[in-house]
Every structure is written in C-alpha cells, then in structure tokens.
Specification:
mainly alpha, two-stranded antiparallel sheet
Length: 145
C-alpha cells in the first residue's frame, strides 16, 4: 500500500506535468467537436474540485458522494462553466485546488474512508480517488500530447 505522502507527491507531480503541458499548448488547434487544451484543463479542474469536496466531506464522515451528473453531462458542463477563464487561469486554479486537496487528504483521519460513488457504482476511498485522479490527469496529457 502506498504511503499518503507518496500519493500526494504523485498527484502533485501529475498536476505539475499538466501545468507545463497546458501552458505550452495554449493555442493548439482542435478539430470540430474535439477537446483542446482549454476544454481538457477545465474538465480536470472541475473533477479536482469535486475530489476536494468529497475528501473534505470524508473528514466529517458524511459518506460517499456521487458526481452531480453523468459523465457526458459533466463533460459538457465543465468546459462551458470555465469558458470565460484563460487556460493560464485554469492552470493556476488547478494548482491551487491541488494544494487544498493535498492538505485535506493529509488531514483525513483515515485515508481509506469511502468518499466517492463512481459512475459504475463502485465506492472509492479517498486514497483510491487521488490515485484515480492522478491517472486521469496523465491520461488527458497523453491524449492531447
């Protein structure tokens, strides 16, 4: 089992990689109907904020939460909600949110507290959520890279 600091370190490394990637690909062209860097970073920020909310709820043993919509609904909402922000602003918000998420996770009494109900019905712990989000970030970088 990974140690908390390893999980936070890996997630922070992924966010740092995303910051470098998205700052260097701001004007990347996109095909009609596909996501570019701005849409992808908005999407990642949306999910990172959701992770922060569920981990904070885990501190109070509220029980696991479902995302507020289907994957397709959230994928449509996230970029639309952030369209007025520049890619640079979204990157900075992702970094800030990651700091808050890392701090909240580090303060959890039990990193195995169940915090999220995934789309497939699986209930994920705070630890699993952070590991999954690290993979998620890197997957989007690879898809756009």
């Amino acid at each position: 089992m990974q140690d908390r600091s390893d999980i936070v370190g890996e997630m922070t490394s992924a966010v740092d990689e995303a910051a470098v990637f998205f700052k260097s690909h701001i004007a990347a062209p996109t095909a009609n109907g596909t996501w570019g860097p701005h849409e992808a970073i908005a999407h990642l920020l949306y999910w990172h904020k959701f992770a922060l909310d569920v981990v904070r709820a885990g501190m109070h043993d509220v029980g696991p939460s479902r995302p507020p919509g289907t994957q397709d609904e959230i994928n449509a909402i996230a970029p639309r909600e952030q369209r007025s922000m520049s890619t640079e602003e979204l990157v900075e918000r992702l970094i800030e949110t990651n700091r808050d998420l890392s701090a909240a996770y580090s303060q959890l009494p039990d990193p195995n507290v169940k915090v999220m109900i995934r789309g497939n019905g699986e209930i994920a712990s705070a630890m699993q959520t952070l590991v999954n989000f690290t993979i998620h970030i890197r997957r989007h970088i690879a898809e756009l890279g």
